[in-house]
Amino acid sequence: MADSLNCNLESLSPLQLFERVTEQGEKVRALKAGKAPKDEIDAAVRMLLSLKLSYKTTTGQDYQAGLPPKDLVLINNGTTKEEDEDLVDPWNVQTSNAKGVDYDKLIVRFGSSKIDTDLINRIERATGQKPHHFLRRGIFFSHRDMDQVLDAYENKKSFYLYTGRGPSSQAMHVGHLIPFMFTKWLQEVFDVPLVIQLTDDEKYLWKDMTVEKAYEYAKENAKDIIACGFDINKTFIFSDLDYLGASPGFYKNIVKVQKHVTFNQVKGIFGFTDSDCIGKISFPAIQAAPSFSSSFPQIFNGKENIQCLIPCAIDQDPYFRMTRDVAPRIGQPKPALLHSVFFPALQGAQTKMSASDPNSSIFLTDTPKQIKTKINKHAFSGGRDTIEEHRKYGGNCDVDVSFMYLTFFLEDDDRLEHLKQAYTSGELLTGELKKVLIETMQPLVAAHQERRKQVTDEVVKQFMTPRKLAFEF
């Protein structure tokens, strides 16, 4: 039996081992609190000690509650050169690979689960809808506990969606649309409430801007989010600077999280230093709190057992690994997650875009002419140096940014596959592929701009007013 246990533990990632130790510790505490028989408690304690030993053997670190393995933000691509490492944290994404981050290795290092065909088929059965092309194409590629969400949904138990936006500039770019496009689809096919957090407080703490400017950006970004087509009767958008002072439930959850996470733990998870302001150190609790339904009593009628599903880019996962560790200790369900890949900069997939670099992406304020110029001038090409070489050897879709963008925004699977084959064979030239992207992005951005014009300050106020939504709990 012990050999079987050790064999099973050897197959676990450091983070999975960490979570097993945490869960076993909770079990021991529950058995002791419930005055379980001594032999049952002793067996659970022996299991806990065995798990802790396996964790130390695997990681070289003693287990510390709430402090995952220290190297989770660095993903080594099998080399020893520091410059060849992928760096992924909530503020930085860097890789030396022109194809972008190695997501399979990221799944292993973070301890999440791959979204496979079986899960996609199960989502289709549960909703009765064709899976979104973001799922079909692996753009949302990783998850935590999505199977539990589906278990509950199939048993007529509701959940809610939570996603967010850090308003660092007045204009959003097309990459910012990805989580909102997918969240809108999830909301429609599952028919569940949605809360959207605007972390204007975070941007004030991290950026060189005033509180007033951060709040102004939050309201402007809300207009772009609303323009994605969210249902006002099913969606609550909130600014941290606003909502924290208006919701005792929200603040109570923040304080509970703060009490159960130490300074050493947030340093280990987020890389904070002694010179960081205390606002940064306490902020993770604010991003964690919307994961709990009791933060929104007006929506959930005070119920604390409604599970949350969070669609987000995987660089936000450290916040929610922390949240999932804390949740059982404050009597809350762990949030589930769906992770997306990073949207590449026009210059290549080595980094994610920056809102401060106007040429790194296509912005939602760009004119058709600006879109055409940016794509033609800045979109990194997977084509050959000469037409003759391209015709002979073909282009590389794995590094070509125009093709990457079409993977996100061209919904026709057959046409996308035809373009891939034509470009790879050399039949389609780089300029012709860029032309397809221009013709895809110009109407998409123009349509968004038209919808945004209809979003008045009054509409924003309605979305951001705490209120009951069209659901009964």
Question: In words, what does this structure look like?
Answer:
With about 475 residues, the chain is of the alpha/beta class. Among the domains are: about 10-60, S15/NS1, RNA-binding (Helix Hairpins, Orthogonal Bundle), CATH 1.10.287.10; about 100-345, 3-Layer(aba) Sandwich (Rossmann fold). Helices cover about 50% and strands about 10% of the residues. It is built from 22 helices and twelve strands. The protein has helices spanning about 1-10, 15-35, 40-60, 105-110, 115-125, 135, 145-155, 175-190, 200-205, 210-225, 240-245, 250-260, 265-270, 280-290, 295-300, 315-325, 370-380, 385-395, 400-410, 415-425, 430-455, 455-465, and strands at about 75, 85-90, 95, 115, 140-145, 160-165, 195-200, 235-240, 305-315, 335-340, 345, 350. About 40% of the residues are buried. The model is unreliable at about 70-85 (pLDDT under 50).
Structural features:
single chain; 473 residues; alpha/beta; Helix Hairpins; Rossmann fold; 7-stranded mixed β-sheet; 3-stranded antiparallel β-sheet; 22 helices; 11% strand; phosphoprotein; uS15_NS1_RNA-bd_sf; tryptophan-tRNA ligase activity
